[in-house]
């Protein structure tokens, strides 16, 4: 393969290797099931390959991938869910119905299900903060919202999770 | 920060190998790339110098010969300009240097050298490992020479033609350069180049004919003469600035709403309206519930919905999207709307392979203003719509002119040099679109993304666009005074040094920090004229961090940063990280003259803390920081060349929002904190009659709960003339959520008087509430809470009506 092509493919390989877990995990927490998450995961990197966004730093690349993953997830879920909000305590909650991703422990599963049931904005900041270890300022920059808003959404999201998990919440290192 | 459960879960959330394999199959099957790769293989071209430069670019930020290491490393080196990008850093240097006018570079170097010599040096971090902020507030300095290092000004570029603009974008986009190289090689073989797209890039996939994105990138593409906004010919500030927008803020709350006894959106500058999800004219309420525009007759107990429009389904509407907020201007209602259109790009592959014509679709983000005539509110009539590329950022309404601001991204692979419509924002009206004229484009120096901020000024009554302007460089924070629009964009800048040897290691030093670019666009009855720009090390809290008074811009910032080194031992494949230290955060206020040259500055405020709220009020600016001492600073700004701290009130907790409250009083809403423990929210009233001795007169702890008004100034109702303060709150209790609207009075003797905690909606699903707003009209209080409209009597606080307006949970969260 010629040099130009192999370099492009190689850099794409690096990008996929570095970010595939991030892309997939965001897709999973925002679509709740593996099939959709796989679709979103592929769509994100294909879009990156096709659109060749003008990226000048790793921070930017990461932010671009996160934003695209969130948008793709939104598109997938808005077509497969109804928009109507279902109260969290309802046993027929779509998140619980569709989730086919299984975690090793019950505790992890419960946390994932609870997270999946939150309104999107809380789910997003909680995911980026706890699963991607991103500091508040970086989350704010990526999502184009103010740091104060991120903090409030984290705080509110944690509260909602605690509410949902009951006593199980005590063992989770929320660290606030 | 996290260990165990989150990490474990994260480790499990990985894509399966079959998914990854399928991804690669699809990547490799992309015809365009594949076709061009095949061409190159057939040609068996030797490595060409042009190709090399292009080829290397996308692989990693590895290009650019650079000279000296970042100052942070060299402890005793010759002074290096602290902020000038050209010589000091490897990433920015060669590519960007030629865009800075030489004179400006010389100036910066001279200033930088002086500044570096005078100051402590931006960071001899080798001498200060593991910085911990000192618990006492350090002495602020207003040494302008030293503080100059924070600021770098140079010229705005105006391209003379679309071609020149294209070259600038090309230079900023390694991916685009690479693509160009491939195309150049492919063209050598006749008949082998990919066909240009057969369909216009802006044609929608399934075309409702009024989507506002139809063809025309010829449009008004006349290669107009350059605006010529060089630093020497900056348009004078418009006369409007004789009305001082800063002083107007201070007195704004003393005036009751003009022409009627009803509340209006809480805005930063008096008479410059800001959009919100609900507005009233004293007789009706106009609100957005998700994508439904709902109009109510405001009639106390008899309040009723009189009209409703599903904005994303209305026939004359643009593509599906999300309504964001609205304005009411006399009898015109303007709804701000984000729409995304699916666009297909068709390529014709002449090689006859089975993947011959493949659609590649993507979505294009557009910001729309939808105009409705509400002279008969029960019968709103669609009038027209204006659109522009990008997602909605902000807006203002002043004297009947709507200023609309959006951010538009350009993607390298969609850019076609021959068609400016692929790399220049588009404007539309009523379904007809045109390309932004060249003379309305300007380029910020050192812009990092290929992102434009797009501004339109629209006369709502005449329903025409007065002017337009776009700036290549983006913008996140918007502040408008009577004569100027200031747009700031903050990015996290990462710089790396050239590798150097240290014993067996190859070391690279990294420094990262926030950098804010700011542009001033003069406005005059809707005409837009970019006038000046600057760049500051640091970030801004929000729109309240900017304020103009007598032509001078005051800016409050937090300067942050960190640096670290990575040491690599190639032989053993070891990589060590070292010295991941944060530079002590510091805060300050900068004052710029009308040319955005630094006039005065005050830095070194509250080292180690972060600004939490700012309110500029004429000659005094109030700044609150947090996180150890939490002082409220009163800063004297009367002499723009010599700001100074008048007082510093150390109190526990901090305000996130400051609001002038009548004569000599400042209201603070914020967090009740004890060191870094958050105990909930609180209200504070400060006596600011004597800025050299500010005191906290009264305070009321509000307990825990989510109060949106802490971070969104539109969510609070403050009416000193009625002694009324109101905001929504939702709190979590053991078994159910509660949302309520809290009302307080204030009296200098008694302090804050809790008047009522009004329960909203119907209880159990209350936690779905999004934003909460309270408005009063005559003797009634109307509370909007995302799904409900509740009506209360202001006398006695009895709930008179509760309308469930919507099932959905407000507008979905828009990220892009």
Please give a structural write-up.
The complex is a heterodimer of chains A (176) and B (816). Chain A has 176 residues and is mainly alpha-helical. The longest helix of chain A has 29 residues, at 3-31. Chain A has helices at residues 3-31, 34-51, 58-80, 94-98, 106-116, 120-131, 136-143, 147-165. Among the domains of chain B are: 5-203, no CATH class; 651-816, YVTN repeat-like/Quinoprotein amine dehydrogenase (Methylamine Dehydrogenase, Chain H), CATH 2.130.10.10. Helix content of chain B is 13%, strand content 41%. In chain B, the strands form 9 sheets. In chain B, strands 1, 17, 18, 19, 20, 21, 24 and 25 form an 8-stranded antiparallel sheet that branches. A 6-stranded antiparallel sheet of chain B has the order 6-7-8-9-12-13, with no helix packed on it. Chain B has a 5-stranded mixed sheet with strand order 10-11-15-16-14, with no helix packed on it. With 816 residues, chain B is mainly beta. The model of chain B is unreliable at 34-138, 189-243, 250-259, 345-360 and 809-816 (pLDDT under 50).
């Amino acid at each position: 393969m010629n040099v130009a092509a192999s370099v492009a493919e190689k850099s794409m390989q690096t990008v996929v290797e570095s970010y595939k877990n991030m892309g997939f995990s965001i897709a999973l927490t925002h679509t709740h099931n593996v099939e959709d998450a796989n679709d979103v995961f592929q769509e994100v990197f294909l879009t990156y390959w096709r659109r060749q966004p003008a990226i000048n730093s790793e921070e930017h690349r990461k932010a671009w991938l996160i934003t695209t993953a969130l948008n793709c997830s939104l598109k997938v879920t808005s077509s497969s869910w109804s928009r109507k909000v279902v109260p969290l305590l309802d046993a027929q909650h779509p998140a619980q119905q569709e989730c086919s991703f299984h975690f090793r422990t019950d505790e992890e599963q419960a946390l994932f299900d609870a997270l999946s049931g939150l309104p999107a904005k809380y789910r997003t900041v909680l995911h980026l903060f706890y699963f991607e270890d991103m500091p508040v300022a970086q989350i704010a920059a990526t999502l184009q919202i103010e740091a104060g808003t991120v903090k409030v959404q984290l705080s509110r999201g944690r509260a909602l999770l605690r509410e949902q998990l009951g006593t199980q919440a005590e063992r989770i290192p929320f660290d606030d | 920060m996290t260990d165990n459960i989150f990490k474990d879960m994260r480790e499990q959330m990985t894509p399966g190998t079959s998914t990854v394999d399928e991804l690669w199959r699809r990547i490799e099957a992309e015809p365009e790339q594949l076709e061009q790769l095949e061409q190159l293989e057939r040609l068996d071209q030797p490595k060409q110098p042009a190709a090399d430069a292009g080829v290397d670019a996308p692989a990693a930020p590895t290009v650019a010969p650079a000279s000296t290491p970042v100052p942070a490393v060299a402890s005793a080196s010759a002074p290096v300009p602290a902020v000038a990008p050209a010589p000091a850093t490897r990433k920015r240097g060669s590519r960007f240097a030629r865009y800075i006018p030489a004179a400006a570079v010389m100036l910066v170097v001279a200033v930088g050298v002086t500044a570096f010599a005078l100051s402590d040096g931006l960071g001899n971090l080798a001498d200060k490992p593991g910085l911990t902020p000192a618990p006492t507030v350090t002495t602020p300095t207003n040494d302008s020479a030293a503080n100059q290092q924070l600021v770098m000004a140079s010229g705005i570029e105006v391209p003379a033609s679309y071609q020149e603009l294209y070259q600038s974008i090309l230079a900023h986009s390694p991916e685009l350069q690479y693509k160009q190289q491939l195309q150049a090689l492919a063209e050598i073989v006749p008949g082998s180049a990919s066909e240009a797209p057969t369909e216009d890039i802006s044609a929608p996939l399934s075309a409702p004919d009024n989507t506002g994105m139809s063809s025309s990138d010829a449009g008004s593409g006349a290669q107009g003469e350059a605006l010529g906004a060089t630093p020497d010919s900056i348009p004078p500030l418009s006369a409007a600035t004789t009305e001082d927008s800063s002083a107007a803020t201070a007195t704004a709350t003393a005036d009751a709403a003009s022409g009627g006894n009803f509340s209006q959106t809480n805005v930063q500058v008096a008479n410059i309206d800001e959009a919100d999800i609900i507005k009233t004219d004293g007789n009706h309420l106009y609100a957005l519930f998700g994508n439904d525009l709902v109009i109510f007759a405001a009639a106390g107990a008899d309040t009723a919905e009189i009209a409703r429009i599903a904005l994303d389904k209305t026939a004359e509407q643009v593509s599906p999207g999300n309504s964001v907020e609205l304005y009411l201007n006399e009898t015109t209602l303007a709804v701000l709307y984000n729409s995304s259109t699916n666009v297909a790009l068709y390529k014709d592959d002449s090689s006859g392979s089975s993947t011959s014509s493949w659609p590649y679709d993507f979505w294009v983000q557009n910001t729309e203003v939808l105009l409705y005539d509400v002279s008969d509110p029960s019968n709103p009539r669609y009038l027209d719509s204006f659109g522009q590329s990008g997602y909605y950022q902000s807006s203002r309404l002043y004297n009947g002119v709507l200023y609309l601001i959006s951010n538009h991204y350009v993607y390298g692979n969609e850019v076609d040099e021959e068609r400016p419509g692929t790399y220049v924002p588009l404007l539309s009206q009523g379904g007809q679109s045109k390309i932004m004229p060249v003379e309305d484009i300007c380029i910020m120096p050192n812009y990092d993304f290929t992102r434009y901020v797009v501004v339109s000024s629209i006369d709502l009554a005449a329903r025409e666009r007065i002017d337009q302007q776009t700036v290549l460089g983006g913008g996140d924070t918007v502040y408008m005074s009577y004569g100027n629009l200031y747009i700031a964009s903050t990015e996290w800048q990462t710089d790396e040094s050239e590798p150097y040897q240290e014993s067996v290691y190859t070391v690279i030093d990294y420094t990262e920090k926030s950098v804010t670019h700011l542009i001033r666009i003069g406005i005059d009855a809707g005409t837009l004229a970019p006038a000046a720009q600057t760049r500051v090390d640091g970030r801004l809290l929000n729109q309240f961090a900017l304020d103009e008074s007598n032509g001078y811009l005051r800016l409050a910032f937090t300067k942050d940063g960190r640096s670290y080194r990575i040491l690599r031992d190639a032989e053993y494949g070891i990589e060590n990280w070292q010295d991941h230290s944060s530079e002590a955060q510091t805060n300050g206020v900068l004052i710029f003259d009308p040319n955005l040259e630094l006039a005065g500055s005050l830095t070194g405020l509250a080292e180690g803390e972060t600004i939490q709220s700012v309110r500029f009020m004429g000659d005094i600016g109030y700044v609150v920081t947090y996180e150890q001492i939490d002082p409220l600073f009163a800063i004297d700004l009367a002499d723009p060349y010599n700001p100074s701290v008048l007082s510093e009130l150390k109190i526990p907790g901090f305000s996130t929002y400051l609001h002038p409250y009548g004569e000599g009083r400042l209201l603070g809403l914020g967090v009740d904190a004890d060191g870094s423990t958050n105990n909930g929210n609180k209200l504070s009233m400060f006596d600011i009659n004597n800025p050299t001795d500010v005191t906290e007169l009264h305070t009321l702890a509000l307990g825990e709960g989510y109060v949106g008004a802490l971070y969104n100034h539109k969510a609070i109702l403050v009416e000193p003339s009625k002694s009324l303060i109101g905001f929504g709150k939702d709190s979590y209790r053991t078994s159910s959520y509660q949302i309520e609207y809290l009302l307080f009075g204030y009296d200098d003797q008694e302090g804050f008087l809790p008047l009522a905690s009004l329960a909203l909606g119907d209880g159990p699903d209350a936690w779905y509430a999004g934003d909460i707003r309270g408005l009063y009209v005559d003797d009634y209080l109307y509370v909007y809470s995302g799904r409900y409209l509740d009506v209360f009597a202001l006398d006695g606080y009895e709930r008179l009506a509760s309308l469930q307006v919507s099932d959905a949970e407000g507008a979905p969260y828009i990220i892009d």
